[in-house]
Amino acid sequence: MGIMRKEGILHIHSSSNNTILSLTDLAGAVQAWASCGSLGFRKAARSTPYASEAAGEHLGRIARQKGFSAVRVYLKGMGRGRDSACRGIAASGLQISKIMDSTRFPHNGCRPPKKRRV
């Protein structure tokens, strides 16, 4: 008889301003969530890779307390914190079984906003 392991789904939405992580069970019910803003990072600090790694470690600790041992990771968005959030999850002791990218991109749809000139 093998070792029972509880697997969940981790959704990482990484925008240019924040990174939001949601842990769900296989049925899709949210079990826990974390974001860079909920950990106390404000304004420009929310978009840093360090903040998203801290959010990943925080959510990983919560997931271990709830009995999860492995997660499937679904990435969405092109923010700076998408890779470091995965690194934080792995550092917390959770096993990553699959990484999928579900970022939407237009096939020449709406015109994008103009580039910032600073």
TrEMBL record:
Q: What Gene Ontology terms describe where this protein resides (cellular component)?
A: ribonucleoprotein complex; ribosome
Membrane-spanning intervals of the chain:
none
User: Under the GO molecular function aspect, what terms does this record hold?
Assistant: structural constituent of ribosome
UniProt keyword Magnesium, yes or no:
no
Supply the Pfam families for this chain.
Ribosomal_S11
* Alphabetical UniProt keywords: Mitochondrion, Ribonucleoprotein, Ribosomal protein
In terms of SUPFAM superfamilies, this protein maps to: Translational machinery components (SSF53137)
| The keyword Ribonucleoprotein is annotated on this UniProt entry | yes
Give the GO biological process terms: translation
- Family designation: Belongs to the universal ribosomal protein uS11 family.
- Output the HAMAP family linked to this UniProt entry: Ribosomal_uS11
- Alphabetical list of PANTHER family matching this protein: 40S RIBOSOMAL PROTEIN S14/30S RIBOSOMAL PROTEIN S11 (PTHR11759)
Q: What is this protein called?
A: Ribosomal protein S11
Give the species this sequence originates from. Chloropicon maureeniae
